[in-house]
Specification:
This protein is mainly alpha-helical and 108 residues long. The protein has one domain: lambda repressor-like DNA-binding domains (434 Repressor (Amino-terminal Domain)). 69% of the residues lie in helices and 0% in strands. The longest helix is centred in the N-terminal third of the chain and has 24 residues.
């Protein structure tokens, strides 16, 4: 089955959110006092270019690597994953973590 065409507005939103995530990751790396190469080594990457791609918003961290990145940056893995989820999957984040108003409607 062919994939539906990507909505240009949605694509722009995804790009902007990935760039915001990249800026957040870069700030976390810099706060930890590491270069891209040092972070890449700590998380077991062969090349630092993946760190560069993620920080520029061209890529995203796979879920299975997020705990290693959090640990390398000295951050709580749960908070790290929640922050990335807010950028990478905003609707899922809303469903999981912004349920107070939704629960109030469901029980009313």
């Amino acid at each position: 089955m062919p994939r539906p065409a990507t909505d240009p507005a949605k694509a722009a939103q995804i790009k902007a959110l990935r760039q915001q995530a990249g800026r957040w990751l870069k700030a976390a790396r810099e706060a930890a006092g590491m270069t891209q190469a040092e972070l890449a080594e700590k998380v077991g990457l062969r090349y630092y270019t993946f760190v560069s791609q993620v920080e520029s918003g061209l890529g995203r961290l796979p879920i299975e690597t997020q705990a290693a990145w959090a640990t390398a940056l000295g951050l709580d893995p749960g908070e790290f994953a929640r922050t990335l989820l807010r950028y990478y999957e905003p609707e899922l984040f809303r469903l999981l973590f912004e349920t107070d108003s939704a629960q109030g409607r469901a029980t009313a």
